[in-house]
Design goal:
heterodimer, A: mainly alpha, three-stranded antiparallel β-sheet, two-stranded antiparallel sheet, 5 strands, B: alpha+beta, 8 helices, 12% strand
């Protein structure tokens, strides 16, 4: 194996764009995750009540209700018709994520994301095998199961185990033994299954993926002609099955990543030394033609994932 | 078409295998989840739901566990159940009367804060709340039952003289005092828990219990004869002949009947 295939992921991007430039969206994402968490914590910790509640349902500045539409759906299936306040809150959340991509919730807001990202970082550091890889569609099965159990038991079923709201509620209201659950997910993602929780099982991600399946905000491999097959985007993407259709599409195929699984995290943009990817909208399917046909990049052996 | 002649496609086989595997996994995961859902309904008797809370089964289909009721409770009465440390469905609001009882705010801010209707917005008068029912569970240790005038539960009751009254009874121990028995009237008791909080004993003698534990229920077909008689203004059954009561012995304790005698339990100090 050549020395280049053993270069750390994103090494070339760091060299060409600098460390900040090669981690721009990662940093922005961490800032966003922290921002939403701090917004909720300002009240209980410092008495500054901008937002009350938690990710399941909240009230901002005493006027803006927001409700998790997945929880509302379970409540509805379980036989309760929520009051108007909750419905309005749910519709607002639904509309926003339908526009910007449902799984933006996963990568920019969800407090579990830093946990599973850390697990993945350790997983790569330890160079562990990817382990149990259930189908990506498993989360849809879990989603269906959750709705079925909600309907049969008359209880909002996923909230009995949902690590997202539990962690968030734990931080905002009181932890209990939630840390043990978070540790379990961390260990699961490190040892048992690479990207196991967020990438294969979590029904919340599956639900948000579905509502954002026609979203406006998309990553596009606009500059795919410049791709030199370094495979860094595949290595860094938590849902790397979404890349190929866009990046390796024949001419005439859309360069847009249209899979609802894409979380719009922007790591592929960060990690690409030749700037293949960029954020755009779903109707912008233009492709940059190589400006100098002579200087086509030299193909090389793929990095083993 | 006979099955043997058609070549089975590997895709079909794979699809069926994958589906069966996924379905099997879902059955396992769903069973665990269903068990947890069933378990979640077992609300401990000490845990009281906020005013206006729907019956427990409906409550768990309605409460999204956002904690807005907790935030708007001015007395920090309500808290969200924490995983593993409170035996209440995780994240749902409850209070423990002995720790902090409900102060029965007139504007019921917790109900106003609830976005889903898990706390029924139809509750507009806190006196109509039914969080539980106070029960004087320990008559052996209650000071009033011992003949003392503690009266604390009665005094602190926000619905004093309606939800709790003091009923006088003869004190058979001293023979010439009254017992002032704190008596809860379930139709007026809101279950706020003030009485339980204030009970002076190390372990409260009066406790708010969930209605399912505190109350029995009368059979639907039972009629109280005296009420029926009063409502009708006459005996319910026509033509009953009221025969003289016959009691054992030559005499009876009925002074009116011939040979009757005065009862043996004449109280001392009571004028003849």
């Amino acid at each position: 194996m050549s020395a280049r295939t053993h270069m750390p992921v994103g090494h070339e991007a760091v060299e060409s764009k600098g460390w900040i430039g090669a981690h721009r969206y990662l940093l922005l994402r961490r800032v966003s995750q922290l921002f939403f968490l701090v917004l909720f914590l300002l009240g209980p910790w410092f008495g500054i009540w901008i937002v009350e509640g938690n990710l399941a349902g909240s009230l901002t500045l005493g006027v803006l209700p927001l409700t998790d539409p997945f929880i509302l759906l379970q409540s509805f299936v379980a036989g309760h018709l929520p009051e108007v306040t909750a419905l309005i809150g749910g519709l607002i959340v639904l509309a926003v994520y339908a526009l910007i991509g449902g799984r933006v919730y996963c990568s920019w807001v969800c407090p579990i994301n830093p946990v599973t990202d850390a697990a993945n970082w350790l997983h790569r550091k330890l160079d562990l095998p990817k382990g149990w890889q259930p189908k990506r569609s498993s989360r849809l099965w879990v989603l269906a199961t959750v709705l079925l159990v909600s309907g049969l038991s008359g209880v909002i079923a996923w909230e009995l185990v949902n690590p997202i709201t539990m962690l968030h509620r734990g931080l905002v209201f009181g932890m209990g033994f939630v840390w043990a659950m978070i540790a379990a997910i961390f260990i699961f993602d490190v040892i048992v299954s690479r990207h196991g929780w967020c990438g294969h099982l979590c029904p919340v991600g599956a639900f948000y993926g579905l509502i954002g399946s026609k979203s406006l905000l998309r990553v596009s491999a606009t500059n795919r002609a410049a791709c030199d097959d370094c495979m860094d985007c595949y290595a860094v993407c938590p849902e790397n099955q979404v890349i190929s259709p866009a990046l390796k599409g024949k001419s005439g195929h859309t360069p847009l990543i249209l899979s609802p699984d894409c979380t719009n995290c922007g790591r592929c943009i960060d990690v690409c030394a030749v700037d293949v990817f960029n954020f755009t909208h779903r109707f912008d399917d233009h492709v940059v033609q190589p400006s100098d046909p002579v200087a086509a990049p030299e193909p090389r052996a793929a990095r083993p994932i | 078409m006979p099955l043997v002649d058609t070549p089975l496609s590997p895709q079909r086989r794979r699809f069926l295998q994958d589906s069966a595997r996924a379905a099997g996994g879902c059955v396992v995961a769903g069973s665990v989840l269903a068990y947890l859902a069933r378990d979640a309904r077992a609300l401990p008797a000490e845990a009281l739901r906020p005013p206006g809370a729907l019956p427990e089964k409906e409550f768990l289909s309605a409460c999204i566990r956002c904690g807005l009721c907790v935030r708007d409770c001015p007395y920090d009465t309500l808290k969200l159940a924490e995983l593993g440390s409170d035996a209440v469905a995780t994240g749902t609001p409850f209070f423990t009367a002995r720790d902090i009882p409900c102060e029965m705010c007139d504007d019921i801010p917790c109900v106003a804060a609830c976005p889903t209707g898990a706390l029924d917005p139809g509750l507009d008068n806190i006196d109509d709340a039914k969080m539980g029912v106070a029960v004087l569970v320990d008559q052996e240790n209650c000071l009033n039952f011992l003949g003392l005038r503690c009266d604390v539960c009665y005094r602190v009751c926000p619905v004093i003289d309606e939800a709790i009254t003091l009923e006088t009874e003869h004190n058979t121990r001293s023979g010439h005092h009254a017992l002032f028995i704190p008596t809860v009237h379930s139709d007026r008791c809101t279950g706020c828990g003030m009485c339980e909080k204030s009970c002076v004993l190390p372990e409260a003698a009066i406790k708010v219990l969930p209605t399912r534990l505190a109350r029995g229920s009368s059979a639907e077909h039972y009629r109280k004869g005296w009420e029926e008689k009063a409502a009708k203004g006459a005996p319910v059954v026509e033509g009953i002949i009221d025969l003289p009561d016959r009691l054992p012995g030559p005499g009876t304790d009925n002074l009116v009947s011939p040979g009757g005698f005065a009862p043996g339990y004449e109280l001392p100090g009571v004028g003849q």
